[in-house]
Amino acid sequence: MNRNEFENALMSTIVEYISDQIVLRYMDACKQAAVLFSGALIGYADAVRSLKELKKDGWKLTVVMSKAADEVLTKERIQNDIGPDAIYVEGAPVNGRQIIDDNQFVIVPALTINTAAKVANCISDNLLTNMISRAMATGKPIVAAVDGCCPDNEVRAKIGFKVTDAYKMRMRSNLEALQSYGIHLTVDDNLFEKVNKVYAASFDFPSPDSDVKPAQVKNEKAAKPTCSGSAAAEAASIKLDKKVIGRVDIAKNARYKTIIVGADAVVTGLANDEAYNRGITIVRE
């Protein structure tokens, strides 16, 4: 590398670093989520762990509970287990529409069979279903954990879930409908990782078309919802033809497990940190 090439690479690195810092601060400032509890107990312990991790990661959480959730989980338990920034219960004065508009993200960590069926069939007849409908109408990202409403959940089978196969098939079709509406499905144990991936992908980063060739995207396949993990299969790898790889490049390609870069590419420290935090492997050619 001659002096001009070195100076250009250094300047690019500085610019990328400054850009990364600006994006990082903006994204951190937007970590605000409406957390909707509809009453499912299955997966609750994992949901608590995930939500606590989100709080440690800087997320501000506004919890809204349905009447059923308040009866099953109780407001006091949610307050003690999670310590949200605010908490509201259906029946008390609460402006669900305003809460959705004031937050950047929606999390449903205890989706019930009833709520899943209503949303799947476009029914908005209570506080939570109205809030989910409002979130979809305004384009807010929604992540829902299906532990409590998936017919194939192992815990549900152990407690004697003996409905017919036709009934289970309808429950699965409800989850497929939610996914087709753009709702991201996961399980409570994976909620923290899923929220952060969807959140990073929700930002309007510069189009990667100039950096990515269609032939370089491999093994990206859609999958039906399951109870064992994410609702969509993760893509395997992508190649970035850039001289400098910054944090933004990692964030906007967070759905890939492996990011391939050139042998002489400069990978910033923030990019390495972002890849590590997301479980992404950076491979040099």
Tell me what the structure shows.
With 285 residues, the protein is an alpha/beta fold. The protein folds into 2 domains: 3-26 and 203-284, no CATH class; 31-201, Flavin prenyltransferase-like (Rossmann fold, 3-Layer(aba) Sandwich), CATH 3.40.50. It contains 12 helices and 11 strands. It has helices at 3-29, 44-56, 67-72, 75-82, 96-102, 113-120, 127-137, 154-158, 165-180, 191-201, 247-251, 269-278, and strands at 32-37, 60-65, 86-89, 105-110, 142-145, 184-186, 235-240, 244-245, 256-261, 266-267, 281-284. A 6-stranded parallel β-sheet has the order 3-2-1-4-5-6, with helices on both faces. A 3-stranded parallel β-sheet has the order 7-9-11, with helices on one face. Strand 1, helix 2 and strand 2 (60-65) form a beta-alpha-beta unit. The longest helix is centred in the N-terminal third of the chain and has 27 residues, at 3-29. The radius of gyration is 21 Å and the shape is elongated.
